[in-house]
């Protein structure tokens, strides 16, 4: 797999001013960034999510794995209320999503936009505005949702594009970019909102295999720098290397949740074992996961 030379090896955290505790410092309770309780969602007779609960702490990289159609992407869309759950609650940094606190009244569009500003979403199919330049795509939400001054939004957008290796493409339109470049613009756009959490919905699935590496490099750097992320992916080796926790879903439910070394080395449930067996050669099935493993 070719890795683009214009992708920086390290990307600074989206949230300024935070740092890892000094060696020997007293540990503090993990801060909960995302709390899902009892999320259920159906489309007609199709029960896509069944009573899903999940907690994500600050600095975690949680990779959602599972067969196609198991509800992973729908779960992400429920987090930012692109899909409205039939049951359950979503809290981001302690604040209720989609419903006014202390009531059953749904948020209006303005309230929902403010709540979504805490969540960065990177979609499978880029979702860039074709009539805006790369720089304008990254500036748009900070300008119109957060109300930041234009000069400030422009400076920040330029800085983020440099971080993802696209400083030379600021004035280009999306139609002039490769798929990998478009996805990196999408990441920069998500970071521009300084979100509490980043959601990635299969960000490499629409890319030519030769372009996957440049996007994964950016995401890997974000994980190393401590960004809080939930990633739906079929890139097994990436998940093994980057995740702080793997959550395995099947048939709309969370079946298993474990550190990557445990999940890939000794999955506990028969369904997870069957899923991983698809990506192992016969000798890997006996010896555990290998760095040569591919992707779904």
TrEMBL record:
Instruction: Give a yes or no for keyword Ribonucleoprotein in this entry.
Output: no
A Gene Ontology MF term for this entry? ATP binding
Alphabetically ordered keywords of this record: Amino-acid transport, ATP-binding, Cell inner membrane, Cell membrane, Membrane, Nucleotide-binding, Transport
Where the record annotates domain ABC transporter, the positions are 34-276
Compartment annotation: Cell membrane
Please state the protein's primary subcellular location: membrane
- Cite the Gene3D superfamilies for this sequence: P-loop containing nucleotide triphosphate hydrolases
Q: Which residues form a coiled coil?
A: none
Q: Which InterPro entries match?
A: AAA+_ATPase, ABC_ATPase_HisP-typ, ABC_transporter-like_ATP-bd, ABC_transporter-like_CS, MetN_ABC_transporter-like, P-loop_NTPase
Instruction: Name the SUPFAM superfamilies for this protein.
Output: P-loop containing nucleoside triphosphate hydrolases
Record's bilayer topology term: Peripheral membrane protein
Query: Into which family does the record put it?
Result: Belongs to the ABC transporter superfamily.
Q: What is this protein called?
A: Amino acid ABC transporter ATP-binding protein
């Amino acid at each position: 797999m070719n890795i683009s030379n214009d992708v920086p090896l390290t990307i600074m955290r989206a949230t300024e001013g935070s740092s890892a505790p000094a060696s020997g410092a007293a540990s503090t309770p993990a801060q909960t960034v995302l709390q899902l309780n009892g999320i259920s969602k159906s489309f007609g007779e199709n029960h896509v999510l069944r009573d899903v609960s999940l907690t994500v702490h600050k600095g975690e990289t949680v990779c959602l794995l599972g067969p196609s159609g198991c509800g992973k992407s729908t779960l992400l869309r429920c987090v930012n209320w692109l899909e409205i759950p039939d049951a359950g609650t979503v809290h981001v940094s302690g604040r209720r999503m989609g419903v006014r606190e202390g009531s059953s009244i749904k948020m209006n569009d303005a309230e929902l936009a403010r709540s979504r500003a805490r969540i960065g979403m990177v979609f499978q199919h880029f979702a860039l505005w074709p009539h805006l330049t790369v720089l304008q795509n990254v500036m748009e939400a900070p300008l119109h949702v957060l109300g930041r001054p234009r000069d400030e939004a422009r400076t920040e957008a330029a800085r983020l594009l440099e971080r993802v290796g696209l400083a030379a493409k600021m004035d280009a339109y999306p139609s002039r970019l490769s798929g990998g470049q478009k996805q990196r613009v999408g990441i920069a756009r998500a970071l521009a909102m300084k979100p509490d959490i980043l959601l990635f919905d299969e960000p490499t699935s629409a890319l030519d295999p030769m372009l996957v590496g440049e996007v994964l490099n950016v995401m890997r750097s974000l994980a190393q720098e401590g960004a809080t992320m939930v990633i739906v992916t079929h890139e097994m080796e990436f998940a093994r290397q980057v995740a702080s926790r793997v959550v395995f879903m099947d048939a709309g439910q969370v079946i298993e949740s474990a550190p990557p070394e445990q999940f890939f080395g000794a999955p506990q449930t028969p369904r997870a074992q069957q899923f991983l067996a698809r990506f192992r050669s016969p000798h890997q099935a006996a010896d555990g996961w290998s760095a040569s493993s591919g992707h779904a």
